Amino acid sequence: MTDREQLDERAAELVDREIRLRQQTDAGEIIDLADYKKRSRRAFLSFGALGAAGILRFRWVQNRPEDESIPDVLRAALDRNESLWTALERDGARARTFSISDREDIRINGRHGLENSSRELIQVEADEAATWEISLTGVGGATLDPIPLSSIRSDFEVHDMVWEHKCIEGWSNIVHWTGVRVSDVLDRYAPGEMGAAWSVLRTPPETDNGSVRRDYSSAIENYTMMHPQTLFAWALNGEELTAGHGSPIRIVTPLKYGIKQLKRVGSIEFTDDRPTDYWTERGYDLHAGF
Amino acid sequence: MTDDVGLMDPDEVVAKKKHPLALRWMHWVNFPVLMIMIWSGMRIYWADLRDPYAIGIADWQVFEFWPDSVNSALVLERRLAKGLAFHLTFGWFFVINGVLYGLWLLRKGRWRYLVPDLQGVRDAGKTVLHDLHLRKTRPPQGKYNPAQQLTYSAVLAISTLLVLTGFAIYKPVQLSFLLTILGGYDFARFLHFSMTIALLVFFGIHLIQVARSGWRNFASMITGYVTQTRREASPEPDVSELVAVGNRSDDAEREEVTS
What we know:
The complex is a heterodimer. Chain A is α+β, with helices and mostly antiparallel strands. Chain A folds into 2 domains: about 35-65; about 75-280, Oxidoreductase, molybdopterin-binding domain (Sulfite Oxidase, Chain A, domain 2). Helix content of chain A is about 35%, strand content about 25%. Chain A is built from 8 helices and 15 strands. In chain A, the strands form 4 sheets. Chain A has a 5-stranded mixed β-sheet. The termini of chain A are far apart. Chain B is mainly alpha-helical. Chain B has a single domain (about 20-260), classed as Up-down Bundle (Fumarate Reductase Cytochrome B subunit), CATH 1.20.950.20. Chain B is about 65% helix and about 5% strand. Chain B is built from 11 helices and 4 strands. Chain B has a two-stranded antiparallel ribbon. In chain B, strands 2-3 form a two-stranded antiparallel sheet. In chain B, helix 1 (about 20-45) packs antiparallel against helix 3, helix 5 packs across helix 6 (about 145-170) and helix 6 (about 145-170) packs antiparallel against helix 8 (about 185-215). The relative contact order of chain B is 0.12. The chains are: A alpha+beta, B mainly alpha. Strand 1 of chain A pairs antiparallel with strand 1 of chain B, so a sheet runs across the interface.
């Protein structure tokens, strides 16, 4: 084939292409101006009406009665989201873990349940920690034998786990926790309660060094409590927990945002009814998990 | 009225169908949904007062996302919980609208109008030069010009990435495979944010172009019809013009061959 023939072929291709392109718009239906004006008026009226309906609908959402600090329809939507994700929950799903050398410093973000009336962090001294107990309330309100901290620290297999701790505010840090599996502890101390749907964890209202300004609470589904990556932890990045991080014992899990990982566990109540907790009452999702 | 084209006045103004009803619906649903998503997303982003993202090198910041003036102008009022509730509710409307649009594009074969061919990619720059009045002729086009094709395809990709990164940081354990593909939690979050900025940049350009194109074009997105003379609307291709185009391309190719 000569150069000339190649160029002719290329030109023919481009003409074909342009004809094809034109067909995209050529097919459109043509109507006369009077008909257009009628349809145009109808279209603009519908557009305006739908726009106004949209704005009204948005205002309606914003002005709905509040259910735990957010419009009730949004609360219902959050709950529906969670039932969807729970239904899709993969058995045995694990959060990604990292190696200890990846660990990072983490700031103290929430001090709820840890402060006295002058907003200072309350220190839990060694002698108080030595006799620390987590009190347990069963479904229906029965008081169970408490879990001594000394038992948590000596009776179970110790795990070191490194994962990405995620804050609902958006930031995250890779941190290293040392502790024991909550499932191991509850299997011994509350075996009859594991059929319940929820655990509600609370900070103690009183300590040896004063009373707490504002109690903190966190509700966690029991399937997450019993997850192998949910720990009672006493050390962060290899150091004993400080007051700001929840000494002497806190709960940690990579399956929930930080707001659920209650610092300084004082009590756990098991319940089947939909519970609430500190941040849920303030408009956050009850599940707040991944 | 008669069907005989020959008897019609070629200068008569008529209206020709341009945008199908489904397309107009999906286009306009996006607008309020995206406004709500960006507004609630900014509430979530602002919850971390350290303002993690900025444009600049090391400590030298050219622009911080967002300056306090922007946050206060939008009345974000530090309500993270409400931001999350709106974001995680209205996000579904964006997902549903996007899935419907994708199915519609495939079903109607309309993706061919949208995705540029190789020649279209080459021609995109020419459209931009023409719009900037640096070039007299515009490259051949179908429903969308080559620059529109590139931009709209990019917006489709950006939106898809927005949804995927959104799901990945929403459910990083359930959707861990997605998180891994998207480069981990921090990077996925950065992508989610960047794609939002990209979408806002598109939105700015889109508004300018709509203003430039004038009322007739804007109205067509609402009515579905664009008014033009019967000659412009005529489906009869002007063969002489096409032959001229062929020759023009021919010359252009020859120049490329000899240079």
